[in-house]
Design a protein that fits this description.
The structure holds two protein chains of two kinds. By secondary structure, chain A is of the alpha/beta class. Chain A has two domains: about 5-145, Orthogonal Bundle (Arc Repressor Mutant, subunit A), CATH 1.10.10.10; about 145-360, 3-Layer(aba) Sandwich (Dna Topoisomerase Vi A Subunit, Chain: A, domain 2), CATH 3.40.1360.10. Helix content of chain A is about 45%, strand content about 20%. Chain A contains 14 helices and 17 strands. In chain A, strand 8 (about 155-160) and strand 9 form a beta hairpin. Chain B is an alpha+beta fold. Helix content of chain B is about 35%, strand content about 25%. Chain B has 15 helices and 24 strands. In chain B, strands 1, 2, 3, 4, 9, 10, 11, 12, 13, 14, 15 and 16 form a twelve-stranded mixed β-sheet that branches. In chain B, strands 17, 18, 19, 20, 21 and 24 form a six-stranded mixed β-sheet that branches. A four-stranded antiparallel β-sheet of chain B has the order 5-6-7-8, with no helix packed on it. The longest helix of chain B has about 55 residues, at about 520-570. Chain B starts with a helix and ends in an 18-residue tail after the last helix. Classes of the chains: A alpha/beta, B alpha+beta. At the A-B interface, helix 1, helix 2 and helix 4 of A face helix 13, helix 14 and helix 15 of B.
């Protein structure tokens, strides 16, 4: 995106928000009960689309009215958040989820009613605003905290600064919440590995695995943030880089992979901007346990782990996948997990020198 | 006279005073606070009963009915000292303005003080009393005594506009212990197990040495008769100390004055509360009460009709006890035992009587006085095994639901009041009837419900925990009706009334403050309370809803202020203009908003944006 495109996007986003305000005002002028239209959220209106291989929102729409006891509070919270967002875009400033909460946290004059009581309410209002305007949180100039780390043979431009991801030392480059305006200058890497654990990233970075394998290594902590998911999607779409997900051999690792690949229920409305159907799983499989002799590092599952396996086996996007169902059955039968960290028992650089090259050579990925 | 008879007389005299001394607690004189209450209560009960009797007579004679008007004055009179020598209590000294009374060995003597000195003598001792600069000095036979201050002396005076008492009857009514029989009448009345006014007279005499002062006027005489009456303890005979003619404020009526040792307290067990409650359940009476603090409280009658006259009924065999049955046999004027069964018991026909006697192997023609205890017992058992008709129940005189509600409305101006009256029922052959009422809000200030218990229109203030009325009250599951509850008692500015009317209230003991727990009585009270609380709960729900309604209607005005602010920020239209438009909209959509609020209340919607539960297990950031 060049600067002209950026300016156009800004104007377009402003006009969407202003139209939202004008529409409501006109409804009031006409003496109508003003309402906002937004897709129904929640499991009842979420579908797995087999063609695009994404979790998407269904066509269910709902109206939120001002003159309705059950709606009024959410209605005014959404409008308050729209006003905050417009100010931010107008002045080309960004704010965090937390400070967005403080910007609408006020007591209605002459009453004892607070517009919002806690951040959960503003977070919901922001998600609603996304649904109503079809703009992402980042496009509304509201960001989450930066998170995670990147290293690899890539050079980017961020707000005029040129950054070389191969020269970021031991900490790597921190991925901002909003990666929309990043410009990729030079991409030499051939693929991307996303990992769920910062400790594994540190290990691979110290080995300079990204240099040896010609790849980009990205990590956050646990679930990938929106910024990282969008970054993975852009690298895949704009530079055709395959994306591999490296996790522990347990059900939570599987779900991290699932969210990156298919999207999530809570964020179904932004699946097309975040999910990555091409992503493949290169984490520890049940097969790897015997292949690399990790049996003595097994950690027994708890009830909650077993319950989660059953739940995930029931998701549409796993149910009809034969290979994955076999893998999940094996996991359930074994009743234990193995962590990536167990490889260090075989030598500190075992992953860089043996595990990852072998996986890549054999194309031994779950899809 | 026979020696035995002579002895018997003496025995009886001793037993009367001893009986009183030993049974103070049973009679309601066990402490000074209760004693004050009991004396007032006995007099007020008598007055109310007498006034009602007069009214009912007037009704029968088609005359103008006089409604009860009772004046109750209670004054703290004087100082009261115990006199002690080195070893023991020797007597009592009561000091009024300038009159000194010494009580010594059951006798009393009063004298005016002159020049700071006086002397009072009894058979073997002389008391010399002197007063100097408010300091009292008492010598007994020349030896100085120690003085210890006692409970103060109260003067109580109860004046009514009842029928009055024939002057020839005054001495016996007030001055003879156990005058009249408590088993005489099977009829709902206040003084059912009456320890009687003469107990109050005796208590007064024993604590202050003063006689009772009675003034009574009957309609046909011009002047009222005043008599100072005391009880000759040895002979159990009345003694009239003074007699004169006086004026009386009403056409007829009786007034009694007693001086007693007592203790005046305020609160739920105090005299003020007793009078208030008495007024509550006697809405046809006017009570004019002046308490020892000099505060005059007038409870004006709220209805102008007398309650239904309670009728006497004959005892029903089901609840009859052997002792009473023996008494009936003994005192009967009937010539045969069969006639006694037929005419002096309820629901026993001639045929049933003869058949019963036959099966008990007793000749129907036996003289009733010749039946011994064993025979009486077998007759009674035989009668009780029969499936006799239940006793008549139209003999009761409840307060009346409407009357109770009126009373509560006047006393508390409550937001809600409701009463429930059950049909009469029978326990052990005794008819009874339950009435309950509740009031909410208004002048009622307490956080927790207060229970007021009544039996035959008398407030029960003591022994609450052993009482069937309390137990039934605590046995209702108020939470089931949506009331908030704390240790079984509903929360809120509530007053509950439970009244049991019966020809024979089954008190747990002689102090008549607690009703025995017969299952049928408990059941009746619970059914009445349940119906009452259902009604209360409907009111409370409606009240709650209407306050929620107001709150929710006003929400839109409040959120409108916020919407104007946001919309103005979003559209750059002047905030005041947006606000005016929103106000216009709210005015236009008033009815729609009302309908929506009503719907939301009936569905139990909440106003919150946190109603959606997150379906996802993942955490975003």
């Amino acid at each position: 995106m060049d600067s002209k495109e950026i300016e156009e996007s800004r104007k377009k986003r402003l006009s969407i928000l202003e139209k939202l305000g004008k529409d409501v005002y006109q409804q009031i002028e006409k003496g109508e009960n003003p309402y906002l239209t937004l897709p129904v959220r929640g499991l009842s209106n979420v579908k797995y689309d087999t063609e695009s291989r994404m979790i998407t929102l269904g066509s269910g729409l709902s109206r939120r009215y001002f003159l309705n006891v059950g709606h009024v509070r959410k209605f005014i919270q959404t409008m308050a958040m729209a006003a905050v967002s417009r100010e931010l875009i107008k002045s080309d400033k960004h704010t965090s989820l937390r400070s967005a909460f403080y910007q609408v946290r006020r007591t209605i004059p002459g009453t004892k009613i607070d517009v919002v009581d806690d951040q959960i309410e503003t977070n919901k209002a922001i998600e609603d605003l996304e649904l109503i305007t079809d703009l992402t949180r980042e496009q509304l100039n509201i960001n989450a905290n930066k998170n995670g780390a990147v290293a690899g043979e890539v050079t980017i431009e961020d707000r005029g600064d040129v950054i070389d991801w191969s020269k970021m030392g031991s900490g790597g480059w921190a991925v901002p919440s909003n990666v929309e305006d990043l410009i990729f200058r030079k991409v030499d890497a051939k693929f991307v590995i996303y990992m769920e654990k910062a400790t594994i990233w540190d290990r691979l970075n110290e080995d300079k695995a990204w240099k040896k394998l010609h790849c980009i290594i990205i990590a956050s902590q646990g679930q990938a943030t929106r910024g990282i998911r969008r970054l993975l999607q852009r690298l895949s779409r704009e530079h055709n880089l395959p994306v591999y997900v490296l996790t522990d051999g347990d059900i939570w690792g599987v779900y991290i992979y699932s969210a990156i690949k298919f999207g999530s229920i809570a964020l179904a409305h932004v699946s097309d901007k975040l999910s990555l159907p091409e992503a493949k799983f290169m984490g520890l499989t049940m097969e790897d346990i015997d292949k690399y002799g990790l049996r003595r590092h097994l950690i027994k599952f708890k009830d909650v782990d077993m319950a989660r396996i059953k739940q995930i086996k029931n998701y549409d996007w796993f149910k009809n996948n034969k290979k994955w169902m076999e893998e999940l059955d094996k996991m359930e039968k074994l009743g234990a997990k193995v962590e990536l960290d167990a490889f260090t028992a075989k030598g500190l650089s075992f992953m860089t020198e043996t595990y990852l090259p072998e996986k890549l050579k054999d194309k031994n990925f779950l899809d | 006279m026979e020696i035995a008879e002579e002895l018997a007389k003496g025995q009886r005299a001793i037993s009367v005073t001893e009986f009183f001394e030993k049974n103070r607690h049973l009679l309601g004189f066990d402490n000074k606070q209760k004693a004050l209450l009991t004396c007032v209560k006995e007099a007020v009960d008598n007055s109310l009963d007498a006034c009602e009797e007069l009214g009912h007579m007037q009704e029968k004679n088609k005359e103008k009915v006089t409604l009860p008007e009772i004046t109750i004055d209670v004054k703290a009179l004087s100082d009261n000292y115990q006199m002690l020598d080195e070893k023991q209590n020797v007597g009592q000294l009561i000091v009024r303005k300038n009159e000194f009374t010494v009580l010594y060995k059951g006798k009393s003597e009063s004298k005016q003080i002159r020049a700071g000195k006086l002397s009072i003598s009894f058979d073997d001792v002389a008391f010399d009393i002197s007063e100097n600069n408010d300091k009292l000095l008492v010598l007994m036979n020349g030896k100085q005594l120690r003085l210890k201050k006692n409970a103060p002396i109260f003067l109580i005076r109860i004046v009514d506009n009842g029928p009055g008492i024939l002057s020839s009857k005054i001495p016996d009514i007030f001055g003879r212990m156990l005058y009249g029989s408590k088993f005489q009448s099977m009829r709902q009345g206040r003084g059912q197990q009456g320890i009687g006014i003469h107990s109050a007279v005796l208590y007064s005499q024993l604590t202050t040495g003063k006689p009772a002062k009675i003034i009574s006027k009957i309609k046909s005489s011009k002047k009222a008769k005043m008599m100072k009456v005391q009880i000759n303890i040895l002979k159990n005979e009345p003694e009239v100390l003074e007699e004169s003619d006086e004026d009386y404020p009403y056409e007829s009526g009786t007034s009694i004055e007693l001086e007693i040792e007592g203790l005046y307290i305020s609160g739920n067990k105090g005299l003020d509360e007793y009078i208030r409650r008495t007024a509550l359940v006697n809405p046809h009476a006017t009570l004019i009460y002046t308490n020892p603090n000099g505060e005059k409280i007038t409870y004006k009658r709220v209805i102008d009709t007398l309650p239904k006259e309670p009728l006497s009924i004959k005892p029903h065999p089901e609840g009859l006890e052997i002792g009473i049955f023996m008494r009936i046999l003994k005192n009967s004027t009937e010539r045969t035992v069969a006639s006694v069964l037929e005419n002096e018991l309820s629901r026993v026909s001639r045929a049933v009587a003869e058949q019963t006697l036959k099966s008990a192997g007793i000749d129907t023609k036996t003289k009733p006085q010749d039946i011994d205890r064993v025979q009486a017992n077998s007759i009674l058992k035989a009668l009780q095994s029969l499936d006799l008709m239940r006793p008549q129940t139209d003999c009761l005189s409840p307060i009346g639901g409407e009357e109770l509600e009126k009373s509560l409305k006047k006393e508390y101006s409550p937001e809600f009041v409701k009463s429930v009256t059950r049909k009469p029922e029978v326990y052990r052959g005794m008819p009874f009837q339950i009435e309950v009422a509740v009031a909410y809000g208004g002048k009622i200030q307490n956080d927790k419900a207060i229970l007021m218990r009544f039996a035959n229109k008398i407030p029960l203030l003591f022994d609450s925990s052993s009482c069937a009325l309390t137990q039934s009250f605590l046995g209702v599951d108020y939470a089931r009706y949506g009331l908030k509850v704390e240790s079984k008692v509903p929360i809120g500015p509530l007053v509950f009334i439970i009244h049991i009317a019966s020809v024979w209230v089954p008190y747990t003991n002689e102090s008549k403050n607690s009703v025995a727990s017969y299952p049928i009585i408990i059941k009746e009270i619970k059914l009445a309370l349940q119906e009452l609380v259902r009604n209360l709960s409907v009111f409370l729900n409606r009240k709650h809803k209407s306050s929620l309604f107001q709150e929710r209607i006003s929400l839109f005005d409040k959120y409108g202020i916020e919407l104007a602010y946001s919309l103005s920020k979003l559209t750059d239209i002047d905030e005041k203009k947006v606000k005016a438009k929103i106000e216009g909209l709210l005015e236009k959509k008033k009815e729609e908003v009302k309908a929506n609020v009503e719907e939301s209340l009936s569905k139990g919607d909440v106003i919150s944006s946190k109603i959606e539960s997150d379906t996802s297990t993942e955490e975003e950031e």
